[in-house]
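Entry 12.
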Amino acid sequence: AGQVAIRQRENGFRHKFERYIARDRDNPDLRRKAMTAITAKMARVVHAVVKGGSDYRPFVEGRVPGGRTSVS
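Predicted 3D structure (tokens):
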């Protein structure tokens, strides 16, 4: 499930993966650790959705030049 999530274009899981591997994109150990972090994040999200009984609402962070998100 983690691999599918990071292949999608715009979602929080892919953004987290990209931030994690930004230091060295070709390092297989770093990519494995990033995949583990994404899988753990997905497990936390699924647990919260199931426990709370709510629908999943994906949060897509918009990229702003400078790496900051705008607060409105």
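Annotation: The radius of gyration is 14 Å. The chain has a mean pLDDT of 79.
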